[in-house]
Amino acid sequence: MEQKGVKDGTPVGRRVVLGMLGFGVAGVAVGATLQKGFNRALAPVNQIGEVLPGAADGFRYYSVVGSVRPRPPARHKVTVGGLVRREQAFSMADLAALPQTRLTRDFQCVTGWRVPEVMWAGVALPDLLDAVGVSPRARAVRFTSFDGVYTESLTLDQARRRDVLVATQMLGAPVTHDHGGPVRLFVAPMYGYKSLKWLGGIELTDKVISGYWERRGYDVDAWVGRSNGRDDAPT
């Protein structure tokens, strides 16, 4: 996921970051001094892990653990387990054999940058959940990255939205390693930190388990733009 970070274990909540961004906009209007202050305030957000240079596609690339070893698509599997009827490990071929969903949505980072109209493709998470069968006891879904550290969660209702993808393609091509490939999560109606990179595991749980960034002060429900998070979903 294109993410954000903290310094010395101090949480930088979403509202704080957005407040700093507002300060940055003011800085443009009233002078370079305020803008420099904004840059110093926002600097801790980029202190954790590795931040690679921005690319022509408009994304900034972040990792919570520094370098992450690439995983060849031919050897990669996404395991789905926990409170399901049939645990299964999905290869890239298995994912390609499931119904495919395509959508075009903006990618919005909580630190303020945005990439408009990104093309995404993959398996809608509800279709993947249907393939394994969800236990009646399940209430949430936990996601783990093969970087060994990064985690995220959604409620089961959120996970059943059709604009939540197990993405195998973006920008008209397979998801690259820097973008979190070969498979990543894309949660269209939420800020980018919910769209976990390097997806390796999906677990159905009986409650929401706070993810990596939520344990550091970020919102569990990270809706962009509207509090109820209801956007038009793709068909």
UniProtKB/TrEMBL annotation:
Pfam families attached to this UniProt entry: Oxidored_molyb
Keywords of this entry: Membrane, Transmembrane, Transmembrane helix
Keyword Membrane: yes
InterPro entries: OxRdtase_Mopterin-bd_dom, OxRdtase_Mopterin-bd_sf, TAT_signal
Stretches assigned to the Oxidoreductase molybdopterin-binding domain: 72-213
Entry's transmembrane regions: 12-34
Protein's UniProt name: Oxidoreductase molybdopterin-binding domain-containing protein
Organism this protein belongs to: Actinomadura vinacea
